[in-house]
Amino acid sequence: MIQLDFLAVLAEWPALLRGAAFTLALSAVAALLGVGLGIACGWARALGPRALARVVAVYVELVRNTPFIVQLFFIFFGLPSLGVKLTPEVASVIAMVVNLGAYAAEIVRAGIDNTPRGQVEAARSLALSELQVFTRVVLPPALGRVWPALVSQIVIVMLGSAVCGQISAQELSYAANLIQSRNFRAFEAYIVATALYLALSVLVRWLLNWAGPRFVFGRLPAAGR
Amino acid sequence: MPHRTPPSIQGRRALTLLALLPLLAATPSQAQNALDEVLAKMQINIAIPTDFPPYGSVNTELKPQGLDIDMANFIGAKLGVKVELLPVTSANRIPYLQTRKADLVISTLGKNAEREKVIDFTAAYSPFFQAVFAPKGTALKGPADLAGKTVAVTRGAIEDLELSKIAPPSTDIKRFEDNNTTVSAFVSGQVQAIATGASVAGDMMGRNPKLGAEYKFVLKDSPNYIGVAKGENKLRLKVNEIIAAAKASGELDKMAQKWLGRPAGSLPE
Could you give the CA distance from residue B16 to residue A122 in angstroms, rounded to a whole number? Predict the structure, then answer.
């Protein structure tokens, strides 16, 4: 019978807490930039010039059809041969932004595509500029419609950041791995890490579901959703 | 029976136990009988490295090869059982033993006090040392010179523990999952120095002569031992017998000569 000894792992709580905070920080930056990139790419694919839409389509397909860890290794181990050296932290953020950007682009595009034609025409007839039409009339309800999917994708990317420990970024699973390599309490370390990831996911989901209607797309009338 | 439990609750309890079963799946059915089980099943599970030439690597036919693999097959032959090789990394070889996925770990395993708390060791079977390596231009005479430098190391390996002990606080130790990633970090220039085993460094320098990497200073001389699960004395003593016989007959020297280019020499019991 294996004796579970959680105290040996919980004694390392500063490392676990630092790891969890780092994962959260990594995800926050990646979510902000990634969703921004996703909106730009979503616009390009749905409404942008054809040439730009093509380029974005290549980017989206490239990222969505390759594993995250390969993208991460390419940025961290591959780019130095082109003279670009990045710290593990910067490489992790870039990989996460690039990854989230591609998935978010498709989600946002779906929201934009579902905008009723009349809504755009009504906005144009009020003499709004194209930029105003997109940022004031098309985008907010589009984001409102796809917000749950977007939040899920952000959580997926956050959980995916567990592999950033492979390039020595000191996030949560790196901390768990380091602890278990020191005291050989592998079960306990991973059980604790799993519980922390679960807590982080619930927290992020709750926070984004709360913040979305208040700060991102406003309270929509039922018809706008 | 002092307390009688209603059958419905018993049923529920059984269900709860069933739900907990996966947690216990790693538990050995009985302790202290690994040798009997191996002989009964006519098969021994041995954890070996595949990222650690010349001790263990994968050849062009995708088969494991190396000193540790030869040793595993040697022990299997002496026991007269089939050998099942399980590829492991530095980071997960001890959990493999703890969860009884492996009966033996022959994976360039060094002995230290932390590890002795959780597993047992046989006598040593091959020589090994860990050191710090860096390009020729880098001035590194001893641990103190590591101040302010970035050093790559494989997490959980002996060199990680040694380096963590002796490096100045300003050293930026980058820990990677396995030897391949650690070497990649050094070869791609992401770190200034690498702390690793002599064999890995030799292989790395052989493949990347342009790096101009060289040996800087030794971290630890640590011969390799075979790991057995805590308390498996019967299996441990049997393996010790095999090692002692192989040492006397010159088999250990022959294996070391074949893979390391030098005889095993005197190894601690």
Answer: 61
- The arithmetic mean of pLDDT across residues B207-225, rounded, is 87
Number of domains in chain A: 1
Tell me if A1 and B27 make a contact (CB, 8 A cut-off): yes
Q: Do B156 and A168 touch (CB under 8 A)?
A: no
CB A86 within 8 A of CB A79: yes
Chain A residues closer than 8 Å to B156 by CB: 177-178, 180-182
| pLDDT confidence of residue A210 | 94
Half-sphere exposure of A205 (CA within 13 A, CB side): 13
- Residue A70, in any domain of the structure: yes
As a whole number of angstroms, the distance between CA A127 and CA A138 comes to 15
Q: With CB atoms and an 8 Å threshold, state whether A168 touches B184.
A: no
CA of B92: which chain A residue's CA is closest? Answer: A181
In chain B, the domains with their CATH numbers are 34-128+223-260 (3.40.190.10), 129-221 (3.40.190.10)
Residue A2 in domain: no
Residues 228-267 of B with CB under 8 A from A: none
Which residues of A fall within a CB distance of 8 Å from B95?
180, 184, 186
Give the angle B216-A91-A15 at the CA atoms, nearest 5°: 75
Alpha-helical (H) ranges within A65-185 are: 68-73, 88-113, 117-125, 130-132, 139-160, 172-183
Q: For residue A59, what are the domain limits?
A: 29-172+202-215
Q: Fill in the DSSP letter of residue B248.
A: H
**What is the Cα–Cα distance from B118 to A185, expressed in whole angstroms?**
9
For the packed helices A13-46 and A139-160, what is the interaxial angle rounded to 10 degrees? 140
In a domain, A76, yes or no: yes
Residues of chain B in contact with residue A84, where contact means CB-CB under 8 angstroms, are none
Tens-place pLDDT, residues B114-147: 899 999 999 999 988 888 999 998 999 999 999 9
Residue located via tokens 């597993």 = B119
Give CA–CA dist A122/A124, Å, rounded: 5
Query: What's the CATH number where A121 sits?
Result: 1.10.3720.10
* DSSP strand pairing (B150-154 vs B172-176): parallel
For residue A180, name the pLDDT band (cuts at 50, 70, 90). Answer: confident
With respect to residue A189, please indicate whether it lies within any of the assigned structural domains: no
Q: Are A100 and A154 in contact (CB under 8 A)?
A: yes
ipTM over cut 0.90: no
pTM of the model: 0.72
